[in-house]
Design goal:
The protein is α/β, with parallel strands linked by helices. It has a single domain, classed as Thiamin diphosphate (ThDP)-binding fold, Pyr/PP domains (Rossmann fold), CATH 3.40.50.970. The chain contains 11 helices and 13 strands. It has an 8-stranded mixed sheet with strand order 2-1-3-4-8-7-13-9, sandwiched between helices. Helix 6 links the parallel strand 7 and strand 8. Helix 1 crosses helix 6 and helix 2 runs parallel beside helix 4. The longest helix is centred in the first third of the chain and has 15 residues. The chain starts with 36 loop residues before the first helix and ends with a helix.
Length: 350
Amino acid sequence: MTYIKPSFRHPLLPKNALGYSRADYEGAISTLCAGCGHDSISGAIVQACYEMDIEPHRLAKLSGIGCSSKTPTYFLSNSHGFNSVHGRMPSIATGAYMANRDLIYLGVSGDGDTASIGMGQFVHAIRRNLNMVYIVMNNGCYGLTKGQHSATADIGSKSKDGAVNPFQSIDLVGLALELGATFVGRSFSGDKTQLVPLIQAAMSHPGFAFLDVLSPCVTFNNKPESTKSYDYVRAHMEATATIDFIPEMEEITVDYPEGKSTSVKLHDGSLIQLHKLAPKWDPTDRSSAVNRLYAAKAKGEILTGLLYIDQKSQDLHDMENTVATPLNQLQEADLNPGASVLEGINESFR
């Protein structure tokens, strides 16, 4: 069996505004288990970047360790990439972003990589409002080490060998809301209609954009009684709203009844169009999002969609008032402006 994709592409494949076909955003052939939800998420990332006309070299993809962290190999092969040690991807993303804000940073992690060994890294990326998209491919188990429960596995759930999880699960969406994340969403790997516009909106958000994507492990955690299985998630999903992402240059039209839809404007002029909103929910009100999340959890439902967005988000560069030029492009005159400038700085503290 070969893992090398043919380079030939049909000349009549549809192209985006940059002249790229969808195939130009793909990567190597996946070596994950057949039917793995992670491959569907990779496909959604490919589709989102293709539709947004993103130049592949403008995107930096980062990951830690785990099944999920293998996936950057399977999308955007012509992008920058860095596979870090277990749980340390946010530190690498922070350093890269502070050195060069011109790239789009897409971090891919898993429930073990984020909710266990990487928890400290995760929470500080949130509080710093690091301008990146952070996707957790959440399957509730450690697939690389034969399916032990992860920190996001629900209490009482059984592993493939029959072991029962005695511990409460960590809800990464609830944690992100509590810590002040400025963009929070949840989706399902089997719902590309919802997931693609969520990824597009996250890429357009100026700050930490967190997406928790339930992604069943077909080998170790797809049993009927598993709350992370395909059947359970499909049966218990409750979407906050139908989501469209509308780029700035597209005509905006709405044909939904008044009171049943709303638009959220992003900093670049793009819109997230939310149709037929769930009752008692406002995506710009953190308290409303938290209440809806826990109400759904109490009923055994999984709330998906755009849960919260801060339209006045200010990212780390803005908060630190840093230089806009990438560090590798700074010249000697920028780094050593002269004695008079230093004297002026000193004088300001006298």
